Predict the 3D structure of the following.
Amino acid sequence: MLEQEVYIGSCKVIVGYKYRVSNCTTPPFYDVYISYVTLPPESYFSCLSVLQSMNFKSLVDDAARQLLIANPMGFPPYQEGECITTWRVGKKSCWKSAGYPWPKDHIFEQWWWYGCKVSEGCCVDTYKVCKRFGQLFVEHLQSVEIGQHNCDSLPNDPLLQNNGNCYFLCD
């Protein structure tokens, strides 16, 4: 699993992701799978106002958008004015939030948002990505849910404190 720091306003989050180039079609699909989003302890105060002003779906969508703009995967477009319409972001349909003590004697917690079981559904978002003025611009095209969603499971980590919230992320 790879991680990338991204900013949503003044809020630093870390996105856990995997990526691939799917060459089964022409043109190829440029796929990113987001497994988790975490709020590091040092970001707690700078993130309070940002997190209070948005819903959970917006948080994950914005984190995905910022990951695509950062493009640590090295996906095209490379040429000025070029656009690619085959970027896809996959994520589980249903997410739960969980507190993770960081460290145990510290007053603050690190917050993690995990997707539920892979077999219980996922969302695939398609994006158009263009290179203009030396930067990537990302436009959301569509969302599709694959499978059924269920929020009954978290990763097997005894330190996680499930707060009971469940968030559906597909449009």
Summary: The chain has one domain: 2-168.
